[in-house]
Amino acid sequence: MAGGPPKALPSTGPHSLRDMPHPLAGSSSEEAVGGDSTPSPDLLMARSFGDKDLILPNGGTPAGTSSPASSSSLLNRLQLDDDIDGETRDLFVVVDDPKKHVCTMETYITYRITTKSTRVEFDLPEYSVRRRYQDFDWLRSKLEESQPTHLIPPLPEKFVVKGVVDRFSEEFVETRRKALDKFLKRITDHPVLSFNEHFNIFLTAKDLNIYKKQGIALLTRMGESVKHVTGGYKLRTRPLEFAAIGDYLDTFALKLGTIDRIAQRIIKEEIEYLVELREYGPVYSTWSALEGELAEPLEGVSACIGNCSTALEELTDDMTEDFLPVLREYILYSDSMKSVLKKRDQVQAEYEAKLEAVALRKEDRPKVPADVEKCQDRMECFNADLKADMERWQNNKRQDFRQLLMGMADKNIQYYEKCLMAWESIIPLLQEKQEAK
Amino acid sequence: MEQATPDPERQLQPAPLEPLGRSDAGLGVTVDEEAERAREEGSGGDTMTHNNFWLKKIEISVSEAEKRTGRNAMNMQETYTAYLIETRSVEHTDGQSVLTDSLWRRYSEFELLRNYLLVYYPHIVVPPLPEKRAEFVWHKLSADNMDPDFVERRRIGLENFLLRIASHPILCRDKIFYLFLTQEGNWKETVNETGFQLKADSRLKALNATFRVKNPDKRFTDLKHYSDELQSVISHLLRVRARVADRLYGVYKVHGNYGRVFSEWSAIEKEMGDGLQSAGHHMDVYASSIDDILEDEEHYADQLKEYLFYAEALRAVCRKHELMQYDLEIAAQDLASKKQQCEELATGTVRTFSLKGMTTKLFGQETPEQREARIKVLEEQINEGEQQLKSKNLEGREFVKNAWADIERFKEQKNRDLKEALISYAVMQISMCKKVGFGFNEDICIFRSTYKFL
């Protein structure tokens, strides 16, 4: 880590967190991995991470790279990956308890961030702080700045069209809270990002604004390095594996976009269907009032349709709250990943250009100057980081979508089960008097 | 429900085939014993296909529909649909059926039959015909009368109409009905010869005409009110149901769009590929399942429609009663005023204003002979009037008795039929939920197994 970490200011006070649910109590998608954490090779990944012989593009092994810092961080990474099995996890973060704050200038929501950790980077075992969306946005920019070779998870959209969506409605706040929780958990799970200084401050600082104002430069070495990559060079060809990632992301984002549109359309149709159902059921009640023997059966049918309507409403709410946000999140994720790919291209372009420049100088001793070596080093680290993150991303994506699609199928099943029960329960009511006759 | 053991006597004699409600016989229809017995046993439900009142048990079916072209009254070419009516008699002993009659009829002939029955059996709730034009359609169903689905549903409706008549204790005996099933040519002429159109009270056609009845029969006013409400509520129900069907169709069809995109997505995935592919396939299956679901629901809608139209028939009976009551009151009024006139003439006092009285005052008294003559005429008229009133009263009471009997029969039939309709609707929904739910369950199983090796 670059420099000594500034002493973390005491947080709002770690009140007893024992009464809070343990982060692992409710299984989230990432933590439900359990035993099946051996990722089978994707068409994009050269190697899996369990491999000790990590081969880098320049043919060297971790220990043999010319930048000791990167190799140690690589080793660290390997170790930590082995540890992420749930049992040896040493950092837990939860986002909950949204609260509305009304001030003279504005009204906004804050969320409670609870952190439990045994890591040395944390002074206290537990922290509890309050953050608002702005703070998350700040964190994300800082991470992008300081860890440009890594894939930073997406945040839920910043802007909401006022009037269309109520920023303070329960549904909106809950959807946002879930997304923010996901965001932090993804960072927590990341072997490099979770050690980032800004992340630490975000989790622990009592008053984040002090840090924001101070504008403390906590850039990592890599961040600093990549920051200075000039954008003037154009890459000739993207290496095959990265081109494949790029293509994959393009198609992936496209398909998700289509699915998002279809899902929205379905919800719209379901709502219109619901409107009609809500008129349909009561007509049976009106009829029932006219009848004698048929009164009960008709009333039963009315109630039944009412129950089905309610079940449908629950289904559409679930789709809106659980399905759509995940699609959007992955679309945003893909977009930011494509930017990282482009950045990588720039780094490679610069390296290749400088290398070419040296070759053209036609010296007798083509000694590779220091700055070209730096470029090479930069590029190799970038590639390694990116590949590792890509693999991690693929795994998480598989888990997330598995859960998502199974969850949606499950919600649909629940809807049909509720309808089934409603209709089955009135059959005896309808048949009753006929037999008594 | 068990059937009545056929009276051996009846089996040997031809069944009475005269229409019991003849123009000269007035409206004094009596419900006889057999009809009563049948009603007690329940003449609906499974006895629909068997007619206990005929010589042998018969089965009626409208088995085919055919498009025809012909020339109409204006000698213009027209296209219409003809329906094949087959009548089979079922041998009592071995249950074998033999085709006895088969002829083709078009919708307008069914209408003619019904109009005839309405005139000759005003106290009966006459079974309705299926709708002339498709109404309450949801968008995918065509409103075109030539559409094969519509024709098919109409065929079933027409068959139902004939079966309802055949199982009605009184209507089944009608000669014209018998001829409808058996006499292909000249049937129309035969019906028209009965002169029923002349008998039909044109006043009834004026739907909005109100007859101010001074002493309405509460039972009938209540019943009329009920039939109005029933018509209104079933119409509303059918309209909303059609909209619900429309929307549900939309929901299912949009899911179909998932099919292609999941398939395309699966192409770029490794582990998830299979799961996505089958999810996409499932969405296609899901989307196409709506057609069958809604077709089944149309059958339910048709059952409701029948009772929508039945409500109309019920109302017609009330109207006829209202008209009868009105005529009765007018006749009574008329009689009362004639009596008064007579009295005044006899006693010489003029209490009521009359034109004769005026002219007498203006142009001089009439001679005693003239007065005697007038009194005599009035007395005759009064006599006649009293006779008529008596018979009208009798008619009225008979009508009420018989109408009410049929109304009770109708009520029980209605409750039975609608309950069954609701049950089969519920069963339909249940089977749909199970089928669709199962499909989604398959999805989960596939995802679960696909990810086993992750």
Can you give a write-up of this model?
Chain B: InterPro entries: AH/BAR_dom_sf, PX_dom, PX_dom_sf, PX_SNX4, SNX4, SNX4_BAR. Chain B: Its main location: membrane. Chain B: Heterodimer; heterodimerizes with SNX7 or SNX30. Interacts with WWC1/KIBRA. Identified in a complex with WWC1/KIBRA and dynein components DYNLL1 and DYNC1I2. Interacts with BIN1. Chain B: GO terms for molecular function: phosphatidylinositol-3-phosphate binding. Chain B: It comes from Callithrix jacchus. Chain A: It is a peripheral membrane protein. The complex is a heterodimer of chains A (437) and B (454). Chain A has 9 helices and 3 strands; from the N terminus they run αβββαααααααα. In chain A, strands 1-2-3 form a 3-stranded antiparallel sheet. Mean pLDDT of chain A is 78; it is low at 1-84. With 437 residues, chain A is mostly helical. Chain A has helices at 68-83, 133-146, 170-189, 197-204, 208-214, 221-227, 240-288, 295-360, 370-436, and strands spanning 91-102, 107-117, 126-132. The longest helix of chain A has 67 residues, at 370-436. Chain A folds into 2 domains: 89-217, PX Domain (2-Layer Sandwich), CATH 3.30.1520.10; 236-431, Substrate Binding Domain Of Dnak, Chain:A, Domain 2. In chain A, 58% of the residues lie in helices and 7% in strands. Chain A starts with 67 loop residues before the first helix and ends with a helix. By secondary structure, chain B is mainly alpha-helical. Chain B has a domain at 326-351 and 367-415. Chain B contains 13 helices and 3 strands; from the N terminus they run ααβββααααααααααα. In chain B, strand 2 and strand 3 form a beta hairpin. Chains A and B meet through helix 7, helix 8 and helix 9 of A and helix 9, helix 10 and helix 13 of B.
